[in-house]
Design the sequence.
């Protein structure tokens, strides 16, 4: 990283402790300038329009992205931006979706400071960087040549929300349990209904029973 160049960074994450940790790390390093923090996609897009951004550090679950295609659109509109994805967990399906969108830098939120800094530097240099566990997933995907039927399979997080809906939890309840915003849950709900082509909770539960996500003994429709 050039000592003379200051990299403009945006953090897009709704988890308070994660955001505060990243802010402290970035503000303490003279190579970086914190351009802003976003807790929603709308706030992120507003920040992106307000000035030049070199690096976007974001969580895919805590921001209300409609899909990984949102990243593709951001990179198309702002080609200078490098994106580092932080996550608490990731499935092979989610990994493939992000890879297809052009994301090549993904790490878990529990990484040590040194690994986080290495990931940031690699991302800014345009080099791939994955946490060790995610690298194993990357190798597994390449070896098996796993493919996903688009728009018909739910992510583990979406399946979890389906189960919560089936258990009678409201959007507010789900947001509280998953520690995400009400708007993020609403976005997940819309995506689930669209993918499964259902229009009501009853239809969703029937679909979930058929898919084996919930036990039909527990539900009487």
Sequence:
């Amino acid at each position: 990283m050039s000592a003379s160049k200051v990299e403009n960074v945006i953090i897009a994450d709704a988890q308070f402790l994660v955001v505060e940790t990243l802010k402290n790390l970035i503000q303490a390093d003279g190579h970086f300038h914190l351009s802003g923090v976003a807790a929603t996609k709308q706030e992120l897009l507003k920040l992106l329009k307000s000035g030049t951004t070199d690096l976007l550090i974001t969580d895919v679950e805590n921001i209300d992205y409609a899909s990984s295609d949102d990243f593709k659109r951001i990179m198309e509109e702002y080609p200078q931006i490098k994106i580092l994805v932080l996550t608490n967990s990731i499935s092979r399906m989610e990994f493939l979706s992000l890879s297809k969108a052009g994301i090549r830098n993904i790490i878990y939120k529990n990484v040590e400071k040194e690994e986080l800094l290495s990931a940031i530097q690699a991302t800014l240099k345009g080099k791939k960087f994955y946490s060790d566990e995610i690298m194993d997933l990357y190798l597994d995907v390449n070896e098996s040549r796993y493919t996903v039927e688009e728009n018909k399979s739910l992510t583990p997080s979406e399946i979890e929300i389906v189960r919560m809906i089936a258990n009678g939890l409201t959007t507010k309840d789900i947001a509280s349990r998953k520690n995400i915003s009400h708007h993020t849950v609403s976005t997940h709900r819309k995506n689930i209904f669209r993918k499964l082509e259902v229009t009501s909770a009853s239809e969703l539960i029937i679909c979930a029973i058929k898919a084996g996500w919930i036990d039909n003994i527990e539900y009487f429709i």
